[in-house]
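Purpose: get a first structural picture of the assembly so the mutagenesis plan has something to point at.
Setup: two entries, given in the order below. No constraints added.
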Amino acid sequence: GENVEQHPSTLSVQEGDSAVIKCTYSDSASNYFPWYKQELGKRPQLIIDIRSNVGEKKDQRIAVTLNKTAKHFSLHITETQPEDSAVYFCAATSPGNTGNQFYFGTGTSLTVIP
Amino acid sequence: DSGVTQTPKHLITATGQRVTLRCSPRSGDLSVYWYQQSLDQGLQFLIHYYNGEERAKGNILERFSAQQFPDLHSELNLSSLELGDSALYFCASSVDGGSGNQPQHFGDGTRLSIL
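Result (structure tokens, whole complex):
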């Protein structure tokens, strides 16, 4: 099955700086890569996603890049704000008769220091 | 509000007991997924149902079982509970049944505490 690795596990940045979180995956058939933000005690919320036919996607301060050859994808947050502090999870999934099981990374705890 | 409803929000019980967690997916979603999240841990996939049929199993213990009903709501049954079963249990739903390129939307979770 798919194996998703996520780095770093913790990240601290000054407010206004950029944050980058990286994930690698193992299954070349994976075709969908969502990112979720989870605040303490709350549900994971989808913040951005990218499909394998696209190399980059941006939504305001958040962007995701995908390198299919190297099998890695990254989340970029610019102009970070204290409310960006949360745990971020990447995931990968591939089509199959068994349904699209998401393989999640282990999470990155982001702290934005005011 | 994600549109995914989980009940109850909190559950406190004792070791050896059995509980049932309930999930109603977003309108139109046929897939339901269950996840376990222990303290400061990641999301452990338990099981996936699509339109009433089991589609995939993850790290689900034999003491745990699930089903999806004709109205598409799902229940996760946990029996012979142990202290280590204390966790947040999330349900997620999706329109996807196998194409592999649709997001999952999470409910607010059920916090299970075993005393």
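Chain B has a mean pLDDT of 93.
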